[in-house]
Each structure stands twice: as structure tokens, then as C-alpha cells.
Specification:
Layout lengths: L1 H19 L16 H6 L2 E3 L4 H15 L9 E16 L5 E16 L6 E14 L5 H39 L1
Parallel strand pairs: 1-2
Antiparallel strand pairs: 2-3, 3-4
Helix pairs in contact: 3-4
Length: about 180
């Protein structure tokens, strides 16, 4: 019974220490329990079409995280260049790769949804994953490759979402100061 009590005190102490240094969660709600600045602004981001199948998956992941399919008129346009490159890293003596490293990279720009398309901010995201290729059937290897590409797109979407949410919070703090 002492371990759970000790953890509670540790958590309370950590929360107090972080609160004292000005730490606030990125998605913190307002005092009236409404969505915070970052969440409200993310809902107004239109994600432009991203080419190729992995790009389509990334776009869907971003729209899901932003909640931008709620009918709110767009105030921002997010353009993303996304690609996944692969390289064999476990090479047998007969030159066959048994492990593939897949690296997903994305560069993004956020523009205002106005006539000038004013550039507001930009950034990049990168994630590395891999898959093993054994004497498996082609269909199984294809399914595994698709699963890895979906994981990469999800991780890239998480990174872009956090970067944008942080930017929105920082901008809101600067405007109120």
C-alpha cells in the first residue's frame, strides 16, 4: 500500500514543480472547459492534398488529429511534402537484404488562407522504422510494408501536430503580451 501512496506524492510533487516553472499542456482547455488555443486553431487548418498513397495516409492522419473536418472555415493552409525512402541494412552474402530501413521525411509550410498566401511558419519531421524480409510470401511482405508506412505516417502526423500546436500557443501568448 505504500508504493501507490508514494507514487501519488511523487506525481503531486512533479506537477507542482512543473506548474511553478510555467509549464502548461499543449492542449490545455480554457477555464470554462472549452478547447484551448492550439486545439481551436488546429481545427481551422486545411491540409492540402499530398501525393502518393503514403501521402494520402499522412493527410488523413493530420485531418484526424486536427479535427478539421468539423465544418469550420479554414484560416490556414498546410502544405506538406512527404516521402519514404528505403535501404537494405542486413545484407546476406548473396546480396539479398533481410532487413529494410524505411525513413519518412516531411517538410511543411503553414500559410494564411488569404489572397497573398502569407507564409506563417514551416518545419520538418522525420521518423525511421523498418521491417524484416525473410522467406515470406510476397503478399505478407507487401502487407508488412504497408503497415510500416502507416506507422511512419502516424508518427510524422504526431510530430507536425505538436509543432503546429506549439506554434499556435506561442503566437497566442505573444499576442496577449
Amino acid at each position: 500500500m505504500t508504493a501507490p501512496l508514494g507514487r501519488r506524492w511523487l506525481c503531486l510533487g512533479a506537477a507542482a514543480a512543473l506548474g511553478g516553472c510555467g509549464f502548461q499542456p499543449v492542449y490545455m482547455r480554457t477555464a470554462s472547459r472549452k478547447p484551448g488555443v492550439a486545439q481551436r486553431d488546429l481545427q481551422t487548418v486545411f491540409v492540402a492534398v499530398i501525393g502518393e498513397r503514403p501521402g494520402q495516409v499522412l493527410r488523413q492522419d493530420l485531418q484526424e488529429r486536427f479535427g478539421s473536418d468539423n465544418g469550420t472555415p479554414p484560416e490556414y493552409v498546410l502544405n506538406v511534402a512527404f516521402g519514404i525512402a528505403g535501404e537494405g541494412i542486413a545484407i546476406e552474402q548473396n546480396d539479398l537484404a533481410t532487413r529494410i530501413r524505411l525513413t519518412g521525411t516531411a517538410t511543411w509550410t503553414l500559410h494564411a488562407h488569404d489572397d497573398k498566401r502569407t507564409l506563417l511558419t514551416s518545419g520538418s519531421a522525420r521518423y525511421i522504422d523498418g521491417l524484416n524480409l525473410f522467406d515470406a510470401e510476397y503478399f505478407a511482405a507487401d502487407l508488412e510494408t504497408e503497415a510500416v508506412q502507416q506507422r511512419i505516417a502516424g508518427q510524422i502526423a504526431d510530430q507536425i501536430t505538436i509543432q503546429l500546436a506549439t506554434w499556435f500557443r506561442r503566437r497566442a501568448a505573444q499576442q496577449t503580451a
